[in-house]
Amino acid sequence: RKPMIRGKPMAQRKIPYLKVVEPPENPKQLKKAERKVRWKKWEGAVSILILAVLAICGTYLLLDNKTYGTAREAASYTKEISDTSNYVQFAKGIIRYNRNGVVYLNKKNEEVWIQPTQIKTPMIEVKENAFAVADRGGNSIMVFTKDGLKGEIETTLPIEKIAISDQGIVSAILKNENSPQIISYDAAGNILVEQQITLGTTGYPVALDMTDDGMMLAVCYLYTDNGVVESRIGYYNFGATGKEKTDNRVTADQYEGTMLADVFFMGTDRSIAVGDNAFEIYSGKDTPKRLKEVKLDQEIRSVFHSDQYFGMILVNKEKSGNELRVYNRSGELIFSKEFTGEYKHGKIDGDEVILYEGRRCSIYKINGILKFEGRMSADIEEIFRAVGVNRYYVMSSNELKVVYLTK
Length: 407
Known about the structure:
By secondary structure, the chain is mostly beta strands. It has 2 helices and 34 strands.
């Protein structure tokens, strides 16, 4: 019974700071809601990141695929020298070589090391980690790495051509009118292999190249058959596959109507033999086999390559000017471009094809887009890409410049 105050029942009071507690939600539902909130936050952040990446990539592609006509100087490093020199890109720097010495330069045109020489007619062959400088017509070969001189080789006959592996093994064609020789040396000058050559059966060697690992040597020969000059190509395996073969030769093919004048490897399992009117593609690491022949209808002026692509500058017979053709490792034509003027020098640097002669220069993307066509401020001795968009190192006779492309 309710309590009475002065004869009246007491009214119930409401307590304002108390409220009814509802039963808790299902824990699974709570976790699901929390995950949904977190995902919405991440979704927004990811969307912003994707848009930023797309904007950066779009800007890069726009800059990278435009055609430029001017190269402006970003930096310059000058060093006065008295001798006429040749230059070639190597490792993280540049090789300068002439009759009196071989110098390794860094990318500020500073001398890292100097090796004096006495070479009348220097020629150079370069791989990624080693290079060799030989005296054409002389008897001296010097093998180098980025750290300097690795070894010296003295030959008994005049040197005509050389090839080098990435370990510093050198193969040389030695001139002898009646009995030429092909001898492979280690960097210290020790004879590793001597190929037996008979003019009547093999022909005269005119070109050679070696794989990076030094296990395979390719040689092009010219010979005369009934008064007609023909070609042969031989592959020599210095590993287990070639030990049981005569003179280590695992492949020997001959060609009628084609004079092979050059051969080069693209990696260890692909090589290209170039003739006056065709090129032959060989495939196989241990026993190379002919994969494809491509006939050409124009004269080849020069050939250059990387491990993925090779290019040719051809002379237009019926038209004025020349033509650039670029192929992949399978011999498929990637693109071709006609151009006026002369470009004796060409190289493939990554996904770009660079042509140059004197001060003139043209740069193509590997998809055929013309990226640059113009003139540098001095004759180009060497050119290659620098870090950054549209930036290049350009070496002239005594100055290394960093340039950037602009309109």
